[in-house]
């Protein structure tokens, strides 16, 4: 996956450097996860120190979860740069030169597979890939909400991931694999190339803003995932359970 993604208004930077606490990537991760408003809908909740954020980041980027975590920036416009530069500097130090840090978006592995069973595909259609299922997550600072940034960043990330998966599963890619792997016939290769990849998103029924984002991104409501107990999210007890949305790319 590309480490930099661009849209008309945004730049997405993939956070990968966990070499030390002083890493700019660690500080960006901390800026996101230490904010109670940003993490209100997260089961993990906010971190309370840079050290705690650092440990959480290393856990999220470990092979078992392998989160493709991107910080999202609004590129500064020349027309308002002079007027807003001092104000932005007071709010958040621009340690990247990419503009204002407005939130994050990610695709993380979900080793347990789909949260609810998927419907069988139409006849003649290969089943979607679910062996490396990823779940979409996003969180934006309050000042950046309601401006379409989540939708814009979501389209960029999903399109990039679809291209990445497609290139990884193309016949040319498979032909370069180890000679010890079983050889596929031409028809099997074509079927593999046509397989869609399934991406999931979980959302609370009391979070209409997030539901609107998912719909704009093309996700479809697949069903309700029932849980045994309620959870405390965004200042109230929710559930028990949540809506599951899915997208095939």
TrEMBL record:
<feature type="region of interest" description="Disordered">
    <location>
        <begin position="109"/>
        <end position="132"/>
    </location>
</feature>
<dbReference type="InterPro" id="IPR000182">
    <property type="entry name" value="GNAT_dom"/>
</dbReference>
<feature type="region of interest" description="Disordered">
    <location>
        <begin position="169"/>
        <end position="193"/>
    </location>
</feature>
<feature type="compositionally biased region" description="Low complexity">
    <location>
        <begin position="169"/>
        <end position="182"/>
    </location>
</feature>
<dbReference type="InterPro" id="IPR016181">
    <property type="entry name" value="Acyl_CoA_acyltransferase"/>
</dbReference>
<dbReference type="Pfam" id="PF13302">
    <property type="entry name" value="Acetyltransf_3"/>
</dbReference>
<dbReference type="InterPro" id="IPR051531">
    <property type="entry name" value="N-acetyltransferase"/>
</dbReference>
<feature type="compositionally biased region" description="Pro residues">
    <location>
        <begin position="117"/>
        <end position="129"/>
    </location>
</feature>
<dbReference type="GO" id="GO:0016747">
    <property type="term" value="F:acyltransferase activity, transferring groups other than amino-acyl groups"/>
</dbReference>
<protein>
    <recommendedName>
        <fullName>N-acetyltransferase domain-containing protein</fullName>
    </recommendedName>
</protein>
<feature type="domain" description="N-acetyltransferase">
    <location>
        <begin position="25"/>
        <end position="220"/>
    </location>
</feature>
């Amino acid at each position: 996956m590309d480490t930099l993604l661009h849209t008309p208004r945004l730049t997405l930077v993939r956070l990968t450097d966990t070499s030390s606490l002083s890493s700019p990537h660690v500080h960006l991760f901390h800026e996101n996860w230490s904010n109670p408003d940003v993490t209100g809908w997260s089961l993990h909740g906010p971190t309370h120190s840079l050290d705690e954020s650092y440990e959480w980041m290393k856990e999220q980027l470990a092979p078992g979860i392998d989160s493709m975590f991107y910080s999202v920036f609004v590129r500064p416009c020349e027309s308002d740069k002079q007027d807003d530069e001092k104000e932005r500097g007071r709010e958040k130090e621009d340690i990247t030169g990419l503009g204002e840090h407005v939130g994050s978006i990610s695709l993380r592995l979900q080793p347990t597979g789909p949260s609810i069973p998927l419907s069988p595909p139409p006849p003649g259609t290969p089943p979607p890939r679910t062996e490396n299922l990823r779940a979409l997550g996003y969180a934006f600072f309050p000042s950046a909400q309601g401006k379409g940034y989540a939708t814009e960043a979501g389209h960029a990330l999903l399109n990039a991931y679809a291209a990445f998966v497609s290139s990884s599963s193309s016949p040319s890619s498979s032909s370069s694999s180890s000679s010890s792997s079983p050889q596929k016939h031409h028809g099997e290769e074509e079927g593999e190339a046509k397989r869609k990849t399934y991406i999931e998103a979980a959302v609370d029924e009391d979070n209409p803003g997030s539901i609107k984002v998912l719909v704009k991104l093309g996700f479809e409501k697949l069903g309700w995932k029932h849980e045994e107990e309620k959870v405390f999210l965004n200042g109230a007890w929710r559930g028990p359970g949540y809506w599951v949305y899915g997208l095939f790319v």
